[in-house]
Amino acid sequence: MLYILIWFIVLMTSVILFKKVSGSLSILKPNLNSIIFYYSLLVSSFIGPIFIVLGKDNYYMINKLAHEQYRVIGFLVICFVMVFLPLTMYILSKLVGFDAKHEFNDYLKKPVEPTFGVRTEFYFFFATLSLISMLAVAYTMLKTNQIPLLELLKGNTAELAKLRIEAARNFTGNVLVRNIFAIALTPLLSLIAYVYSVKTEHFKWKILFLGLFGCSVLISVYDLAKSPIFFYVIMFLLVSIYIGKTKFTPMKVFIIGSLATALLLIMYVFIQGVTNIESYLSISTGPIGRLIFAQISPTFLHLNIFGESLPFLQGRSLPGMLVGLFDVEQVRSARLVMEQAFPQRVADGTGGVLNTLYVAEAYANFGYLGIVMATIYIGLVIQAVYIVFLRLPKNPVFVSLFIYFSINLPRTLVGGFADFLFNPIWFILIVLFTGMLLFIRFRLDLTAYFKRVREN
């Protein structure tokens, strides 16, 4: 009863704080912070722990705990995150005078400025970048020995789980080309092209969008991962809302949710091979178990393993760029936990990494102090991103980047801590698009200056 009471108090506190830092927790007006609350924390990280601490989970990962006290410790760590992450965000908002409700609502009402949309130079630059990204998608397909999607269509479903791991780990091409230009850049470019096609109604933008859209769908589903295509669809819904083309209603949310659920069930049948109706309805298996336990259970395993079976990493799982300065080999805690908990899956090639809430990797490196410091740091980063984008000009590039981070920050939150310290993909995207806009603006200003000089 005590744990249930704590859970409810923490939930209410978290709801109040997240509402203050996001401006709205309404599902009809989604934003970066509300997505973090509902997806990264409430569903993926907070519902499961109440069952775990009460011993009602019967989940295969939690059954690997060697020390039962980590059920309680893990529960309390998640409660800490639910309160202190939004509290940090709230303090930053107060320090910079950010009124989340007012600024977010104003942003939604603001018209989109089709910056450079009619400029030939911009379209040429953008089209060239789009061609590079589409070629990168083709390159990814060519350098993947066996494409899981193709094998599924051919009816070869026996080893799909192994093929999914091999598609990611045994890619024979350049990983940076795949990760940056194919996986990250193509969907983002498709969003920008979509906004321009809607706002300018030019045929050239519509053609470019269709090509990018097709490549984005392909790169999202080729390895049969279930989440990328869902997140890509969500990005489209968000961008439609933010540019004023779509307005969410309770009925639309219900229809979209029903379609997503149906698609998820179909993917479980054909990809996971789950056909038993009891597996769907049980909280420890199928889609329900995947939602409330799969993402958070590795956090409990991290707490159980590091400091007990394995020594703390002392920073060895931080970004390779930082670790390399000290001539130390980089390791990822999520991989070490997989090797400890499921050695057989690693041996037979079906085990990759056990990514989970950021506190797990922070703890694996620096113990409980790492959890506290990581929570403060990430809270500051997330709220700073939210404030900056709401205050930037609302043009197709910045709107699309805002949407990109509104989806990828929540995903990274339940993927680890290291990517928040230095993420080369995020860095390259920001530099690329900001540099592109600044260069074109400088060129236009320079042209205008010389024109005025000639006229005078």
Structure write-up:
The structure is a single chain. By secondary structure, the chain is an all-alpha fold. Among the domains are: 2-110 and 295-379, no CATH class; 117-186 and 214-226 and 425-456, no CATH class. Helices cover 73% and strands 0% of the residues. The chain is built from 21 helices and no strands. It has helices at 2-22, 32-53, 69-95, 100-109, 120-142, 148-153, 160-169, 175-200, 203-221, 227-242, 250-272, 277-281, 286-294, 297-305, 320-323, 333-341, 343-347, 358-391, 396-413, 418-421, 424-455. Keywords: Membrane, Transmembrane, Transmembrane helix.
Strand content: under 5%
Termini separation: 82 Å
Helix-strand category: mainly alpha
Query: Regions with pLDDT < 50 over 5+ consecutive residues?
Result: none
SSE layout:
Elements: H1 2-22, H2 32-53, H3 69-95, H4 100-109, H5 120-142, H6 148-153, H7 160-169, H8 175-200, H9 203-221, H10 227-242, H11 250-272, H12 277-281, H13 286-294, H14 297-305, H15 320-323, H16 333-341, H17 343-347, H18 358-391, H19 396-413, H20 418-421, H21 424-455
Helix pairs in contact: 1-2, 1-3, 2-3, 2-13, 2-19, 3-14, 3-18, 5-8, 5-9, 8-9, 8-19, 9-10, 10-19, 14-16, 14-18, 18-19
Protein name: Oligosaccharide repeat unit polymerase
Transmembrane segments: 6-28, 35-52, 72-92, 122-142, 176-196, 203-222, 228-244, 253-271, 366-390, 397-418, 424-444
Keywords: Membrane, Transmembrane, Transmembrane helix
